[in-house]
Amino acid sequence: SDNMAAPGRHACQFLRTHLEQLWCYRRKASSVQKNALASAEVLAIPRKKTWSKEAVLEALALTVTKDPTSYAYQFQDDPYLSPQNSAEFKLYSLSQESGRSAAKYFVNTFPKFFTKDFAEPHIPCLMPESVAAETEEVSEEALRERVKLRKVTAAVTSYDQLLQAGVAVSKETTQELLDLLCFYGDRDPVPEDADPSAEGPKTRKPNLRQVLGLKLSWKEDNNAERIFHLLPEKDTRSYSALIRGMVKHGATAKAFGLYTDLLNNRLVADVHTFNSLISAAPDVREKYNERWDLIADLLKQMSQQKVQPNLQTFNAVLKALKHCGHLARPHALQTLSEMRALGIAPSLASYYHLLAVFYKQSSSGQGNADILQEVMAELKGRSLECQDPDDVHFFSHAMRICLDNKDLELGYSIQSLVEVGDNWRLLGDSYRQSIYYGRFFNLLCMMEHVDAVLKWYRRLIPSLYYPKPQGVRDLLQALDTDNRLDVLPTVWKDMRSLGHDNKADLVEELLTLMARDPQPPEVQESFAKCALDIKGVLDGDRGRLGPEWSTSSLSSITRLLLRANRSQQAWDVLQLFKSKNRVPPSRSEGLLEDFLSVCRSETIPQRAVELVQFSATFCLPATHQLATSALADFDLTDEQRAILTGLQTSAEPCD
């Protein structure tokens, strides 16, 4: 009976198991169905997405990382024109811009040959510009056309012709002409390639007016003022244009007088007018408290006239506070708090002006770094956009604070922010980028481990940064500190490519580091090859005049060749002391003794005799000891022994 019951139990167990599985499946199916119904209820078909014509290119660009070994994008078409140093970078950039200007000249001079637009999407700069006026008759349409083409002198002439003809010019056209005159200071616009700022930074210390960006170029009773006074009805826009033009071109006192006239006529200034007046406040007041009182009075008038401030308003206040001395710090923090209360997010220029208020190069301290840390905590991970012309000053100024405070961690946080999205564009032009990366690299060399320094060195050079002599000197000091002198030959190759092989002090420092201490044979051999390459540069073997030979460079190269067992080449370099009219150091720092040891190991008695004669030629104190050692250690002929004996007895220090 037990045998018969067993199959029954197995059958029941089998049936129970399958029923449980079926129940589980049903529960799962029911759950899936419920979820499907729930998802079907909330499913929303998205609207059609319209992509820009550059969307595919932008998506592809995101898949490619930057190659640190490549040069800047504008130089990749022709490898021959890849700049090797900052001088070539500037030269090739100017050459490229000159070629672009020449091409633009031909396109605009002969527009009939450039009517076909091949670019997709359309690229306006590749097509001819309308630079010549088409309407010749005296009419308001001709005046409008000249204003649109920014022909200042021609527009004024056309306006005067209309007045002489008794033609009434509309208020809108007159206002556009006034805007043009005020913007350019009643002068024809200067071409971009003729901008004097392109000549590079000035070494002369600027005065306050130059610091504030003010130029004394506003002429008394110019066409802008004349046309303004001819207006039958002057409104806020006309006053604003003239006030802003006066401030921009240096007539700040007249601008404030015109603002008083605006108030007397019961008009309300706009926010742009207030921004210009605030930025000019330090130029019309001498004392710090008077400057701040004027700024505060303008802000109070904005509030009374119900003019809503914008980002540029607060940036103008912060910028002006840099010239308010001890009053600047408390009012700067108050200004920043007011910005946040109004829901206006500070831009990089706001933070730049704030740091400039609290940070002075002569009085660096932890408090300044603390302020920068708070700023970086707010900016961390954000993708930034340019909202103010002064935004480009922030990163280089912040990195200077890190360098002066030797704060490596803060420097890394600034570099991380630069690498977010397109924030690198806010570094400014190539000159400002060079300043930023130069300070960052200096900070790395000063505070970071040499392996990290070399990693950043390969990452930054030459794609982002062409180090100046000080940058190379910082790298040499970092290698010396961490005893990584084996990298020096590679640094020398980079010095040659960067154009620093003609800097005598750098070459001597490099040779001194290589010659200071003995190294393993393989390193010593690479040092010897490097020394011979340096010798070729000093000899000018490539047709280029190199730095002059010095006693230090001759001694170092000789020592390096001796340590690599290149005695003949070392002897040839030693003879350059005579041909180059250089006197070996009085002690020779053991150089001649080392040379005598090599002669002993290679059993070259004649070379030992010549070495003692060489020492005697310069009346070196080591002559007597060298002669004594040579007499004792070498198997000499009678003639050689006689020479050495004579030198030994006559070796006296010369005056």
From TrEMBL:
GO terms for biological process, alphabetical: mitochondrial translation; regulation of translation
InterPro entries xrefs: PPR_rpt (IPR002885), PTCD3 (IPR037387), Rib_mS39_PPR (IPR055063), TPR-like_helical_dom_sf (IPR011990)
Per-repeat ranges for PPR: 235-269, 310-346
Presence of the UniProt keyword Repeat in the record: yes
Lineage: superkingdom: Eukaryota
UniProtKB keywords: Mitochondrion, Repeat, Ribonucleoprotein, Ribosomal protein, RNA-binding, rRNA-binding, Transit peptide, Translation regulation
Protein name: Small ribosomal subunit protein mS39
Source organism (scientific name): Tetraodon nigroviridis (Spotted green pufferfish)
